[in-house]
Amino acid sequence: MMPMRVLPVNFSTVLVELAGLDETLALFASLQAAPLDGIVETIPAARTLMIRFRPERISAETLAARIAARDLSARPAACQRTVEIPVRYDGPDLAEVAELTGLSTAEVVRRHSESLFTVAFCGFAPGFGYLVGGDPALHVPRRQSPRTRIPAGSVALAGSFSGVYPSESPGGWQIIGTTPLRMWDIFREPGALLQPGFRVRFVDMDKAQVTVPAATPAPAKPSVAADAPQFKIRAAPIPALFQDAGRSGRSGQGVSASGALDRGAFFAANRIVGNPADTPCLELTGGGFCFETTARAVIGLAGATCPVTIRDAAGCARVFDSWRPVPLEPGDVVTVGPPDAGMRAYLAVRNGYEVAPVLGSAATDTLAKIGPDPVEAGVALALRSETLPLDSVALHEAPAFALPTSGDVVTLDIVLGPRADWFTPAGLAALSGQDWRVTPQSSRVGIRLAGERSIERKDRAELASEGTATGAIQVPHDGQPVLFLADHPLTGGYPVVATVAEYHLDLAGQLPVGAAVRFRPVGPFAEIAIGVPP
What we know:
7 helices; Cyclophilin; Jelly Rolls; Gyrase A, domain 2; 7-stranded mixed β-barrel; mainly beta; 6-stranded antiparallel beta sheet; 4 domains
């Protein structure tokens, strides 16, 4: 049996690699039943646990030793909850699966529908459960050429797993059927139909009568009264997004934290206007955002340095600076120009916006499609009317770092791992020995980088899906890396060669297209030694 390995991710996260899924689930169950002080979040995957911890309360070495001392011989008790998923076995890959397995299509359907599955873990997308325990005869490889679009409700196989795509997305699993059941419903509680540990049966709709519950109706969107204090959005070439510090603790449903990409600037914007630290702000990308206020207000802009003009009701214009509070009068029209430096600015208003949280947060996750609607032209944003305490003082602020421009070379510190040993010496040299250009294909999900030399792998072996952290540098087969930002998927199937140090994540979130990145390892790659637990 392969010994346990504890691999570095960043200064507050490790990846625990085990012999297989049984050991992974046993350790996960053990940590759920008897948590270790200092652990913040644990994300299980096929043969790994990604563990975030508080370094001020427990060191990586102590964490590794205490985890290694856990008894993994006992298997967690089976969950008594069983979910039945109706399936119409009409998938485009059903015949190919039959050919790969040497079975008839009818036999594939019979074996799949007569199996009892267990949700091992969730990831890839909100509500996507990796199901294990099916008939071993149905273990088939992923498609050689992934599809760019797989419809929501597709029932599919890959390796030893079965699963259901909860939303339309690209993917490479073998599709054998479809279900009308909604696997992910943001208006249902909980939103994910499947949770780790649940048991699952697939029901052949051609052989059994099945009642499919109706989708949970979306709550009516509140309208903004005409006389309410509000910002009327006149222009938003790139829709603005509400962001806060993010939603944590939702990994069991396959939901990552999201939140502001430059958290320092987000917090600064709220300090400028005297708001509590986590009050939702608008994240602005690019220029042209314009709004009119119907009431007195105090705003503050932090992050990317943008030219901002205010035109009053009489037509007189004035310019204001970022990083300081600015008063507005009814009828003022504010226009935010394109950034001179940086990529994203955060617009706060005294007392805050009237915005409803989704899953406990106002952060907009662009990948998972969770959070408030994007803010576009024609939208009216209601402002909160309650008054903050008089001792809440507005402040002048300053950037925490020099904001990058499209011609700059920006150095980011990285922690090598967890999969640095999957790459050749030449590949690791290419990672840190050249500049990587930020491409236009970048987004809040991740920054796609381009370099003259690719990051060479030792082989093209498949990596079982495992948890990924914000700042992870994932390397697809073409060797051109992707730097994951806040809206990244919870798990990924390409090896992560290194992860950006937490103190440089805000800087990474401000990288504009055309800037160059130079990665600087803070030390050599090394597994975390497992000693005797203190």
